[in-house]
Write a structure and sequence with these properties.
single chain; alpha/beta; TIM Barrel; two-stranded antiparallel ribbon; 17 helices
Length: 392
């Protein structure tokens, strides 16, 4: 897979100082995790999942999840499972030039094992499994099932556990549970691609739902939990933690004025683009992605194709970020160096882990030309055909 492969050569050359690189199946684990970007969920009951996957890949989607858990009613599980197996076999039998990494969100390890058996030789489109309600007690069996399936197929399947149980967010059990889950994932780390946060389930435990005018970080009980998750899983860079789902479509009613600045859009002669972002609530999604990045999260779960370009635009590395990262990584004796942009100091030791993440993101998402911003990326992506709703 390759980000922004849908742009023509001239557009990519004009946009990128360093173009996104190909990320193959044998790439390093953290690089693949970074390349997931905005992971698009689709209910397993959708009738044209193969067509959805091919269309969305052509429009920039690099990872999808066919969901058999919360997105499917209990009385539809058997039909949805058959539909997902058929979709994966279709994708394997007649692959497109580009396909996203496709994962299946299963209900339990028995369903996981059954899906692999039903796929048989036509399993090449399956990248791995999303493991919901993940915890120490059920997690061991789930990860062992992923590893057994990998051995059966002769290639590595990825596991993406979702942290969304009461023990994860209740204060009296949180830290002990997170540390136990971390120890478990470390034992199986070669199969663990990313750690995902089930914010909808966590909110539901308190009867909460974030309003479209707010971010997940405005819900203090969930925001504190996210902070602890990053503390346990993000402290040494061995796990990628993904931002929680953005669950809203557009709405004509707004309580607050948009915080999205006008100036960057005026400078890029893209005021109409800003109006579209505001009218479809994508300005709020952009704000949450900025906060995700600031809090150590990478990528995001989304439920509509229109969300993808917004998320990816903020994952492309700016020229200033890249210049600072290279400055930090070019020295290993400590000390402080002035930014090439003349607006900050780069401390070589404290900023090193940050710089390494920026360079990895630059390999996957590319580096913008000097002076370019996320507005230019969004404008370029807007030149592609309108995305059809894959999850709605």
């Amino acid at each position: 897979m390759r980000h922004y492969a849908f742009l023509d050569d001239d557009r990519r050359s004009a946009l990128f100082h360093r173009q996104p690189e190909d990320v193959g199946p044998d790439a390093e684990r953290l690089q693949i995790a970074t390349a997931l970007g905005a992971t698009l969920y689709a209910p397993g009951t959708r009738q044209d999942l193969p067509g959805d996957a091919r269309r969305q890949a052509a429009n920039g989607v690099t990872s999808m999840v066919f969901c058999l858990e919360d997105a499917v009613a209990d009385d539809e599980v058997a039909e949805a499972e058959t539909n997902v197996v058929g979709a994966l076999r279709d994708l394997a039998a007649s692959p497109a030039v580009l396909l996203p990494l496709v994962f299946v969100r299963v209900r339990d390890e028995q369903q996981l094992t059954r899906i692999v058996a039903r796929l048989g030789a036509l399993s090449t489109a399956l990248a791995g499994f999303v493991l919901p309600k993940f915890g120490e007690e059920c997690g061991q069996a789930q990860l062992e099932a992923v590893e057994a399936a990998s051995e059966h197929l002769g290639r590595r399947l990825w596991a993406m556990p979702v942290l969304e149980t009461p023990e994860i967010i209740y204060r009296e059990t949180r830290i002990e549970t997170l540390i136990a889950v971390r120890r478990l994932l470390d034992k199986h780390v070669e199969n663990v691609l990313s750690v995902r946060i089930g914010a909808t389930d966590l909110c539901g435990l308190f009867g909460l739902r974030r309003d479209r005018d707010l971010t997940i970080y405005d819900l203090s009980v969930v925001g504190e939990c996210i902070g602890d998750i990053v503390n346990v899983f993000g402290r040494d860079g061995s796990h990628v933690v993904t931002g929680p789902v953005w669950e809203y479509f557009s709405s004509p009613e707004r309580l607050w004025v948009s915080p999205l600045r006008v100036t960057p859009f005026e400078q890029a002669d893209e005021t109409t683009l800003r109006q579209r972002l505001v009218s479809t609530d994508l300005d709020r999604l952009l704000r949450e992605v900025v906060l995700d990045k600031a809090n150590g999260l990478l990528g995001k779960t989304v439920i509509h194709p229109d969300h993808v370009a917004a998320v990816h635009s903020l994952l492309v590395v700016t020229h200033e970020e890249y210049a600072d990262a290279r400055t930090v990584l070019d020295g290993d004796a400590g000390g402080v160096r002035r930014s090439a942009y003349g607006n900050k100091m780069n401390e070589l030791r404290p900023h090193r882990a940050w710089a390494e993440k920026v360079v990895r993101r630059a390999q996957v998402f590319g580096v913008l030309q000097e002076g370019a911003t996320f507005v230019d990326v969004l404008a370029a992506a807007s030149g592609t055909p309108e995305l059809a709703g894959a999850a709605g």
